[in-house]
Amino acid sequence: MNAFATDGEVEEKIDDLPPSAKLVYKVLEYNGQMTQKELAGETRLSVRTVRYALNRLSEVGLVEQVPCLTDGRRTLYDVESFEEEDAVAEADDAVEAD
User: Fold this and answer.
1) What is the pTM of this model?
2) Residue range(s) defining the domain that contains residue 27
């Protein structure tokens, strides 16, 4: 079993990613929202490597960009929540069934 898997869907998406992307994902999963600079400091990866990892994670839908409410110039990154998507899909299905 993959140590990075929290869900079968996540495991499938993360398997083919480089180790740097897996590390960034786990740090975001553990710490919550972070900037690129904070991720670089926490992971000890270069900012360029962190940016590449975030782009790859975004491409497969595992990470989302969130605007920083305290400083509009900064962008925060967070793990995409699949639970919310599932709840919305279930609610839509329930409405359609009526």
Assistant:
1) 0.74
2) 8-97
Residue bearing tokens 């329930």: 94
Q: Which has the closest alpha carbon to 78: 95, 61, 98? A: 61
Query: What is the per-residue burial (b if ≥16 Cβ within 10 Å, else e) of 49-84?
Result: bbebbbebbeeeebbeeeeeeeeeeeebbebbeeee
26-74 tens-digit pLDDT: 999 999 999 999 999 999 999 999 999 999 999 999 999 999 899 889 9
Beta carbons of 6 and 12 less than 8 angstroms apart? no
Specify the CATH number for the domain of residue 64.
1.10.10.10
